Each structure stands twice: as structure tokens, then as C-alpha cells.
Amino acid sequence: MKTLSLDSASGITGFAFRDEEGKFEWGSVHKPTQAKRIDLIKRAVEAGCTHVAIEYPFSGGLRVAANLPILLGIAYGQWRSECEREGLIIIGNPMRAIDWQKHVLGKTPKGETKLWARNKAGDVTGYSFRKCEQDAADAVCMLLYAEDLATLGLLATEGKV
């Protein structure tokens, strides 16, 4: 099972999947329009992806603008809709950041989760992720989590619509 992972947001969405040879493809989509979303999803499908893990939006406990949860929810829904339209099976139920962080990174010191995610993504891809590439690094880590769950037979799927 090959998976596309998406750290969705309204401004920048990180993504990761493995190509036909098993090498990581990762990056960010800036200001994701419908055309940009479809282009990325089709690239992943052409690489053999059949599933997608989209990080569920969460802003609880953070001091954020009142409209941020709405914007994150819209971005999540747009990505999910496009993925389902292209035939990808949604996995997660939901795919929560706290779950992939605990599984892939273990217990991190307070305030170090983002750094540890960049380091872990760098370890597996051979690339040194910078702070401005956090979304892509998170997507790589989320992909590792989804692959581990699939290997262990613990992957919850929501099926095709």
C-alpha cells in the first residue's frame, strides 16, 4: 500500500510519498489552488499511491486568530474532496498530529517537537530540512507513521466515497 501524506493548511501544505522506486518525494504546495491540489494528487497516483493520510486540523490550546480553525477546516475539506475524487482511500480516522508525533518521534522535550520532526525527516530522506520546510518534514513523518500502521495491520480506512 502506497500512501500520500498531507500536512494540510490554507497557506502551505506539506506533502510526502514514495516514488516507484521507493524513494521519498516531498515538498510544499504554496497557496494550494484546485489545480495545484489535483496536480500533486495525480503525481502521487501515477507513483502508485492508493491511500492518503491528511492531518486532521487542530488548533486547540493555541492562541490563534478566531478564523484559523475555519481556514484549516476548509483546507482539510478541499484536499480530502480532491483526493476522494481521484479515487484515493482516506486513512487515519482521523490522522492526528499528536498520534504520529508520539509514534515517530517518541517523547520530545517541551518545545522541541518541530525540530525533532525536521531531524527525523532529514534522517530518512538525506536532506537537511529548514524551519521554513516544516510542513514537508511533518508530512514525511506522517508518512512513516502511516507506513508503520499498515505494516502492523492497524490502519483504519474510511473507504472510497
Please, could you describe this protein's structure?
- The chain has a single domain (3-159), classed as Nucleotidyltransferase, domain 5.
- The chain has 161 residues and is α/β, with parallel strands linked by helices.
- A hairpin with a 5-residue loop joins strand 2 and strand 3.
- The chain has a 6-stranded mixed β-sheet with strand order 3-2-1-4-5-6, with helices on both faces.
- The chain has helices at residues 34-46, 68-85, 97-105, 113-125, 134-152; strands at residues 3-7, 12-18, 24-30, 51-55, 89-95, 157-159.
- Helix content is 45%, strand content 21%.
- It is built from 5 helices and 6 strands; from the N terminus they run E-E-E-H-E-H-E-H-H-H-E.
- Helix 1 (34-46) packs across helix 2 (68-85) and helix 4 (113-125) packs across helix 5.
- The two termini are 19 Å apart.
What about the largest sheet? Answer: 6 strands, mixed
Strand order of the largest sheet: 3-2-1-4-5-6
- The helix fraction, in percent, is 40-55%
Strand residue content: 15-25%
Q: In the residues, how many domains can be counted?
A: 1
The coarse overall form would be: globular
